[in-house]
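Researcher: Please predict.
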Amino acid sequence: MEIACEKLDGCPACGGGEIQVLDEPACLWKCLRCDLVFDNPRPDAPSIDAFYARQGQYDGWLSNLEARQVLWLRRWSLIRPFLPRTGAILDVGAGIGQFLSLAGEGWTTSGTELSPVARTIAKERWGIELLGGHLEGLGLPSESFDVVSMFHVLEHVPRPGETLAEIRRILKPGGVVVLAVPDEWGAATARISRVARLLGVTFAGRGQAGIRTIHTRQDLQELHLSRFRPDSLARLVEFGGFTLETVQPDPHQPPGGWDGMVMGASYQVSRALMRIRGSWNVHPAIMAIARRPV
């Protein structure tokens, strides 16, 4: 499908105007105020909506539900210590609703999802009615949720700062936000690519930073607009008016197969490294948990 792009003259997260090129071939720019790395130019909002509304987008998830259930249970076990025992939870970009289906008794579950296909699957398989549309345009009541989660969604939204402002508005005082995103900069594959480039070896489809973007590879299965690292994600959360509880690796890979073994190993290594120093990460996904101040 054809993807239209737009050019930015400021940071899409904090709104700062001091930005500079970080990786010209990959069209990656960096904000000098909040350290966010972002695509520029980048796919525009209609292109992103159309991309994720494609037929068959969720076929891989449906064929792997048992393994993905293990993945979601792992995530629940990581976040439950930060949550109240019961309450109202909103999952933004809920996909087919599997995370919400595992919430358990005492939870009132709600979710949003752009894809009509995914919303239909969530209703038919889990009995979950997801709201269609972008969070910022839904007009949800203020201070109405105890928890708002976004699993690998923030990297897709055009204005992550505005999205976090809306999450803060709809969270109750003391409410928890859970944000899981890729860490494409810190991932071992990107680090190896950057070292190899210093030795004169380049990898097809990766720019100078070792990251694949729509500008270096046309057959990507995901369209990411922002590229987070542990420190930049933490900074964005704090800019958004939240109190950061933790940044840790996100066990995003379903178990099984070679990929599952490799991701499991990198997850455990990064858990140990980030206990020593929060920004030391080699796993390709991270999770921030933060709280709206009372």
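Model: The chain is about 30% helix and 20% strand.
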